[in-house]
Amino acid sequence: MVNTGYGSGNADAGCRTVSVSPSAWNPFGSFDGVTAADRVLTVTGWLIDPDTPKAPATVHVYVDGAWGGAQAASLNRVDVGAAFPSAGPAHGFGLRIPVPAGTHQVCVYGINAGAGTANPLLDCRTVTA
């Protein structure tokens, strides 16, 4: 510490080593649900990337292991804004994906921007269209 008043010298505050895991910078969020109506899936949730907390992060959706679509998570979610005030509420997503009739596995990934180590799987769900 630097002495700015009376006294004779600066006190030693000590040193510490801090490690921050690169995975701490991976996106995080929630795959809230998937519904089916008229052979269209609606996939909802929210996503925040700590590297760009004010900007919308991107989600990728796979249906039965094949590309389903992508969306910037920019929909207003008051609950997310309340839980993460420094990021704000604009982190929701709601993709609509046409599918053939039948049972489908839907998986949602958060796409990492910047530091971090992965595009984490938020979850997989099964739905019948």
Kindly summarize this structure in a few lines.
With 129 residues, this protein is mainly beta. It is built from one helix and eight strands, in the order E-E-E-E-E-H-E-E-E. Helix content is 5%, strand content 47%.
Give an overview of the whole structure.
With 129 residues, the chain is mostly beta strands. The chain has a single domain, classed as Immunoglobulins (Immunoglobulin-like), CATH 2.60.40. The chain contains one helix and eight strands. The strands form two sheets. The protein has a four-stranded antiparallel beta sheet with strand order 1-2-6-5. A hairpin with a 2-residue loop joins strand 3 (58-63) and strand 4. The longest helix is centred in the middle third of the chain and has 6 residues, at 78-83. The protein starts with 27 loop residues before the first strand and ends with a strand. The relative contact order is 0.27.
Please give the structural blueprint:
Layout: E1 28-37, E2 40-48, E3 58-63, E4 66-72, E5 75-76, H1 78-83, E6 90-98, E7 103-111, E8 121-128
Antiparallel strand pairs: 1-2, 2-6, 3-4, 3-7, 5-6, 7-8
Keywords:
1 helix, elongated, mainly beta, Immunoglobulin-like, single chain, 5% helix, four-stranded antiparallel β-sheet, 129 residues
Count of DSSP strands: 8
User: In one word, what is the shape?
Assistant: elongated
CATH topology grouping = Immunoglobulin-like
Assembly state (oligomeric): single chain
The computed structural class is: mainly beta
CATH architecture: Sandwich
- Determine the number of helices (DSSP H or I, runs of at least 4 residues): 1
Share of residues in helices: under 10%
Strand content: over 45%
Give the distance, in angstroms, between the N- and C-terminal Cα atoms. 65 Å
* CATH homologous superfamily title: Immunoglobulins
Major beta sheet, strand line-up = 1-2-6-5
